Amino acid sequence: MQIRCTRTSARTYKTLVESRNARINAFVHLPNDSSQRLPSIGGPLSGITVAVKDNICTSGMPTTCSSPMLKGALGISIFLPYDATVVKLLRSAGAQAGTELVPPTTFFDRLRGSLNKYSVHGPVINPFGESEGRSAGGSSGGTAAAGLCDAALGADTGGSIRLPASYCGVVGLKPSYGLLNRWGVVSFPDSLDYVGVLAKDIESAESVFDYLNIHDPRDPTAATQRIREKASKSVLSDFLGSGSLSGIRIGDYFPEELYPSVVNPLRTLLIDLRTHGASQRPVTCC
Q1: Does the annotation mark 237 as catalytic?
Q2: According to its record, what are the GO cellular component terms (predicted)?
Q3: In this structure, are 146 and 182 located in the same domain?
Q4: Do 187 and 261 reside in the same domain of the chain?
């Protein structure tokens, strides 16, 4: 599957980022055109622009986790000499070919928090609420708020991809545990951390995920290729083959404070899921 989103030239992309970033503060670092450029290698993702969360190591760019401890004394950021596995896979598929940019994005200090308000780099502003200073969500707030690139890599422990994606109107994919490799990713709790994809549409998120869904033994928690194939066959045969969702239980929890514009589409979706065999159960808050 080819990525479906519009591919923007590096020059246009950088101009857009520089003009918007002063207002929304999504990017920690923007590589210049000369010193942080990779040779063009072609590939299925060639020409797309991808943002990377600031806890995913990217060679030649700072990895600060939005923390004053890792930002370094006197504001000197730490530049690591290697790529995380997911970044390396992006590059090998052609992302950042030529002068395409893969900048680190802002998030809340050391992956904690859902507002992205107290980052050492400053708060991230929702691009749909600049005048009100609305939150972009967190902790992958910068990754989601960017919206100026074709896709982005985030990290999710308790909603850090899904929450900002919903706030900023993009697709947020948190894959099953162990599918996307975490080698080179600064973790919070190892047993709960996931690397995921944010994109403008489902097809683009799926396309980027497909190129990253590869086993790397350097991550001891990564699912082996045998497990991946077995799980994939199980899902295809149990659910997608018959078109039935029988056996799937879906929990719902709708606080009274939710706006009808949020609740009503979800209730409509639940009705559709039940007609396909899924069961619905209320979830209590205590």
Answers
A1: no
A2: glutamyl-tRNA(Gln) amidotransferase complex; mitochondrion
A3: yes
A4: no
Q: Is 176 a catalytic residue?
A: no
Q: Which of 139, 140, 204, 207 is catalytic?
A: 139
**Residue 183 domain boundaries:** 10-222
Question: One-letter amino acid identity for 53?
Answer: K
Q: Is 34 a catalytic residue?
A: no
Q: Same structural domain for residues 168 and 249?
A: no
pLDDT digits 0-9 by tens, 40-61 = 456 788 777 788 888 888 887 8
Average pLDDT over the chain, rounded to whole? 75
261: tokens are 């514009």
How many structural domains are present in the chain?
Answer: 2
